[in-house]
Design a protein that fits this description.
- It is a single chain.
- The protein contains 14 helices and 13 strands.
- It is of the alpha/beta class and 347 residues long.
- Strands 3-2-1-4-5-6-11 form a seven-stranded parallel sheet, sandwiched between helices.
- The chain starts with a strand and ends in a 7-residue tail after the last helix.
């Protein structure tokens, strides 16, 4: 039975990942979290309440802030691990613009500390895999017709994306320097149950339910909405498990030479691209209400926000993975669940 350390385990994506691993493997999970603005133990409590006592016993929670090194006491609490999935990060773009040093400490220094811990494990007991969860935003805005592949250049447009790129490069360096077995994933606009109500999809659910106006971020002329590839957190978890379990297939099929780069990177991309107006209309339809909206030119007035992001998901498709559920079904699933569990719409 494998032991998996998940950093930021009480965060939004990570708690879905914990639930997915517990219900789809016999592995045990250690959740490492400092329980700040993003972390919420109630998320873990909610998913654990669905499990049997036996399955619950396979989840352990350890408190630690990765701005500090993992000291011997924390190492003892964690115990031996086979796989590390590093999701802990500051991820709020607006906050990164106002407080950039917070994000340098969380996303660069924090990543350096978990990588150093992983290096020590790898020297004494071979680590099976270290997965660094990065973001589409490291590539910056995508012009029409361009979907960035895994090894395109960085073009960070805000401190959040810059610090995620910094953490990504540290992970690459630890593979190149110390032979740490690193994978890097890029995801974008992940949604699902128990997401923070400040995010676009929960806000749309609230607005549609209550008859409020939804602000749709658009171009300067307020004629075109921003667009993204949205993906459910369970699909991200499914893609991550696929990567961990299919190492031989990945080595066999991933033969592109990126100038000698050793660290494999993978885009976990939603099934289709949607602009935010299309998405808001899907949400309102699921709620059973007519959408009220206005187009807002937020990007021109607030540097660091981009109109379009896009990733190319063809590599994962070639390897044999893609999301199994349509975006329409996922939206219905999340809307219906959220309306029945209204406490998750309150800050």
């Amino acid at each position: 039975m494998k032991k998996v350390l998940i950093t930021g385990g009480a965060g939004f994506i990570a708690h879905h990942l914990i639930y997915y691993l517990i219900t789809n493997t016999n592995w045990s999970v250690i959740s490492l979290d400092r329980l700040d603005y993003s972390g919420n133990l109630n998320r873990l409590d909610n998913i654990l309440s669905k499990l049997s006592n036996r399955d619950k016993s396979r989840v352990k929670v350890v408190y630690h802030d990765l701005k500090s090194e993992i000291n011997p006491w924390i190492k003892k609490d964690i115990g031996n691990v086979d796989i590390i999935l590093h999701l802990a990060a500051g991820s709020h773009v607006d906050r990164s613009i106002d407080y950039p040093m917070e994000f340098v400490l969380d996303n660069v220094v924090g990543t350096a500390n978990i990588l150093e811990y992983a290096r020590q494990i790898n020297e004494s007991k071979k680590l099976e895999r270290f997965v660094y969860f990065s973001t589409d935003e490291v590539f910056g805005p995508a012009p029409k017709g361009i979907d960035y592949n895994e090894n395109d250049r960085y073009n960070s447009t805000n401190p959040y994306s810059a610090t995620k790129a910094g953490g990504e490069e540290l992970a690459v360096a630890y593979e190149n320097t110390y032979n740490l077995p690193v994978y890097i994933t890029h995801t974008m606009n992940v949604f699902g149950e128990r997401q923070h109500p400040e995010k676009f999809i929960p806000k749309c659910i609230i607005s549609a339910r209550d008859g409020l106006i939804v602000e749709i971020h658009s171009n300067k002329n307020k004629t075109k909405a921003g667009s993204r590839h949205y993906i459910h957190a369970s699909d991200v978890a499914d893609g991550c498990l696929f990567l961990i379990k299919n190492r031989k297939k990945i080595i066999k099929k991933n033969k592109i030479d990126y100038g000698g780069a050793k660290c494999p990177k993978f885009n976990l991309v939603g099934p289709i691209e949607l602009d935010n107006l299309e998405l808001a209309k899907l949400i309102a339809k699921s709620v059973g209400k007519k959408l009220k909206y206005k187009m807002v030119d937020f990007h021109s007035s607030r540097p660091g926000h981009d109109l379009r992001y896009a990733l190319d998901g063809n590599l994962m498709k070639k390897l044999g993975w893609k999301p199994k559920v349509s975006i329409e079904e996922r939206i219905d699933q999340v809307v219906n669940w959220t309306l029945k569990n209204k406490r998750w719409l309150k800050i």
